[in-house]
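Lecture notes, unit on protein representations.

Consider one protein chain, 248 amino acids long.
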Amino acid sequence: MAEAAFSRKQICAHRGASGAYPENTGAAFHAAASVGAGWIETDIQCLADGELVIFHDAHLGRTASGSAQVTSLSWPVMAELDIGSWKGDTFSAERPMRCEDLIAWQGVVPDRPGIVWEVKCDDDLAAVDAAAAAVTKRLRDAGDHHCIVSSFSREFLSTLRPELSAIPMALIAEALPEDGVAFCQEHGLKGMHLDGHQVTHESARTVLDAGLALRCYTINDIKEAQRLLALGVSMIMTDFPERFLARD
């Protein structure tokens, strides 16, 4: 039993249940769903062939062997990478997934978690255009896919927003930028995703009083999560969703 029960919709599994499982893998996503997380946060990058791969780092080396820049690779190369063994031999069969693979996984069971897509994208025009086109295509084809699209890249968000007007989007930052709320309002974004450890009463009120949702990453401590919820934060992203969700 967890120390304190949070509602399902308040808990988002950061890269899946990544504390105990290799991040951004089927194993981590299944584990997040099995403990009752209402949301899963994950990362997508646009590969050289236009495919969208679920992968966090800009370069191989930490969770997969190699050193190549991820966006320089094609899907057939990415698809063969072992992204599980770094977390333990039992995960050696884990391979990267594409955006549409996770969308399909979500759709198999009606109450599977919503997906918070964090789009990794450089701010140069070619990268922004390629990522926006790829994300637009996948999400337009996904029907009623339950998701939020987020990014640190303002160029990406401002390019994507007109293409997918019905999908909620959020700007990611560490501490609240002085112009963060104004940017969200100008571009029709519905929320901000901030480093929870840097959120204060003042910064929370600034976001919430503007009518924006405030969601926080990456919180693994129960008391810190309770502090943030008391400030009005609506979602806690955590590596350990099992700590927050009481199960019978």
